[in-house]
Amino acid sequence: MFYRPEDGHGLPHNPFNAVVTPRPIGWISTRGADGSENLAPYSFFNAVAYVPPQVMFASTSAKEDRGDTKDSVANIRETEVFCVNIVAYDQRHVMNTTSGPWPKDEDEFDLSGAPRADCEAIPCSRVADSPASLECRLTQIVKLPGEANFVVFGEVVGVHLRDDCLVDGIFDVLKFNPLSRMGYQDYTVVREKFALKRPGQ
Q1: What whole-number distance in Å separates Cα of residue 89 and Cα of residue 191?
Q2: Which of 60, 76, 82 is nearest to 144 (CA)?
Q3: How far, in Å, CA of 178 to CA of 186, rounded?
Q4: Is the pLDDT of residue 201 over 90?
Q5: With a threshold of 0.90, does the pTM exceed it?
Q6: What would the 3-class secondary structure string for 94-159 be?
Q7: Could you tell me if residue 197 is inside a domain?
Q8: What is the CA radius of gyration of the chain?
Q9: What is the mean pLDDT of residues 183-199?
C-alpha cells in the first residue's frame, strides 16, 4: 500500500502514529502566570541533545479556552519553564486521566490524584512518584505547518531520579517499566532490555 497524506489513506483510522512506535511519553507539568497548574501527557516527545541536556515535545491541537494551543504550551509561553515526568506502567491510569480536554482552570494533579512535589530549580510542580522528572527552562517554541502544531524545546536544569530505580549506579528502567505510546488507543510497556555494542567500542 502507498498513499499520499494529502489525498487520505482510505483506512478506518489514520495509521501514521501506529507506524512511528513505540514513542516515549512526556508527562508535562506546567504552571501559568496566575499560579494555576496543568499536567498532561504528550507522546510526540524525546531527548534531543546531551550537552547541555535538552528535550522537546510537540502539541498538535488546540482548546477553545486557549486560542491556538493547549494549556501546556500556553503556560510555558507565560512562565518559560516546564517539567517532564517519566511515566511508569503503574501510573498508566493516573496519566490517562490527565489526558482529557479539561478546562483551563481544572488542576489535573487534583483531578487525577497524582502526588505533587515542588521542583528545585524552577517555579513548577512535578509528579512526586515518577521514576524521573526533568526540570526544564524553555529555549524556544517552534511553529510547525498546520493549524495548532507547536514544538517546545527546553534545557534540562534539574533531574530527579527515584532512588529505587538506581541499581549499582545505573538508572534501571526495568525497576519501573516505562509506559510507551503506540497507535490508535494502544500503549505498550518495557519489560525487557538487551545491549548492543557499537562498532569500534
Answers
A1: 10
A2: 60
A3: 14
A4: no
A5: yes
A6: HHHHCCCCCCCCCCHHHHHCCCEEECCCCCCEEECCCCEEEEEEEEEEEECCCCCCEEEEEEEEEE
A7: no
A8: 17
A9: 96
Q: Which domain holds residue 155?
A: 14-189
Q: Which amino acid is at 102?
A: W
Is 179 within 8 Å of 141 (Cβ atoms)?
no
How many domains does the chain fold into?
1
Is 8 a member of any domain? no
Read off the C-alpha cell for 15: 495509521
Consecutive H or E run containing 85? strand 81-86
Residue 194 counted as domain residue: no
C-alpha span between 128 and 98 (Å, rounded): 15
Q: Is the dihedral of CA 168, 174, 176, 180 positive or negative?
A: positive
Would you say residue 102 lies in a domain?
Answer: yes
pLDDT in tens, 135-185: 999 999 999 999 999 999 999 999 999 999 999 999 999 999 999 999 999
Q: Which amino acid is at 97?
A: T
CATH number at residue 82: 2.30.110.10
21-47: pLDDT as tens digits? 999 999 999 999 999 999 999 999 999
CB atoms within 10 A of CB 158: 15
Contact by Cβ (8 Å): 82, 30:
yes
The angle subtended at Cα 40 by Cα 36 and Cα 43, nearest 5°, is: 155
Give the model confidence (pLDDT) of 63-80 as tens digits: 989 989 999 999 999 999
